Amino acid sequence: SYGGFTLADLEAQVPRSKEGNFILEVPELYYTAGDKEVQGVLAGQMIETIAQVLPEKVNNEDQKRLRIFRMLVQCCAADARPYSIPVEFAEKAPEFKEMTWVKVTGKMGYKQEGGQTVPMVEVKKIEETTAPDNAMIY
User: How many CA atoms are closer than 13 Å to the CA of 70, on its beta-carbon side?
Assistant: First the structure.
């Protein structure tokens, strides 16, 4: 047995910002929805990520959500696939032009919606930024 996934494992594998937030890419956040052990460690942790933003079109009656995404390339650019997660605000979500690059800082969490586990960031700060050097993740 390899043992369980712990906060010490997360700290050993994931870099932190100078503010102490775990720096994770959107596809990494997306895939945590499939692992309850990782969810147990990551839930409640402060994270930051850079992504593009879109309006959230589902489960957003109160207009407190946006959707962030990144493109992940498995083989070649023609294979690129978007990975996205919702981000939620305490009040009404701010407006951004679609596809704007943003840096999101917030608390990681998970919600059950439509019978699925949805990874979600409770936003503490969002700001417009420029596309990172790795705009498409390989």
Answer: 25
Phi and psi for 51 in degrees, rounded to 5?
-155, 175
Residue that the structure tokens 């503490």 belong to: 124
Euclidean distance between CA atoms 132 and 102, whole angstroms: 10
Residue range 15-34, pLDDT digits in tens: 999 999 999 999 999 999 99
Joined tokens for residue 43: 């839930």
Spell 81-91 as b/e; 16+ CB within 10 A means b.
eebbbbbbbee
Q: pTM higher than 0.90, yes or no?
A: yes
